[in-house]
Input
Amino acid sequence: MNWKSFGRGLGWIGPGSVLLAGLSLASLLGPAAAQAQSNSAAPSTERKTSTPYTGDLSIFDSPGRDRRLHINRVMDMLGIKPGKNVADIGAGSGWFTALAARRVTASGTVYAVDINPEAIQYIDERAKKEHLQNIKTILSPPDDPQIPANCIDAVLLLKTYHEIAHPVALLKNLRSSLKPGAKIGIIDRNGNGENHGVSKDVVVREAAEAGYELRDTQDFVKSDGMDYFLIFTVKGN
Output
């Protein structure tokens, strides 16, 4: 899943207007102000992200995956139980979506969020085939999951975070959907961003910038020691 952000609220000023505005500011405020204006206009650098998988979604349903990832323990730690509302961000094939939907029962809801229309269609068909009526799919923009406000008890980003180009914006936009005390779980592997992994320290730093604090760190989700499981809450909750 390639989470590239969309530009918002951008106006257009012709090149001549920009030049005149720059000259006017320089003449009024002096060289120091002009230099500060130039520095502030410099584009910010984004960390590298991995190329998203675009192949057969069924590979995520490989036999034994639930055991290898200890997914029941993951759900226990996130407080996923009957009656809870869960968000699966970067849902892909809906593998975790379906497991969580059974766990929360008909009294809970699972929101399967993805930017890929093919994934959304795949999950809709899966929910119908598996008779899971408590799944709601959301085809979202890259930097906003667009989940309804104040309804989510737990979130999981499973092997997805390394593909998010603008994670701080995504996590900030997620906050309005969370109930007080909601837990946000991130499972990923250590890497450099473009090798289908991202450093745990990078995730913690970006989450803090978005207003979250780390509550727990685990490494049981895979025996090779490369994977980690982080749990966050909104600061102050």
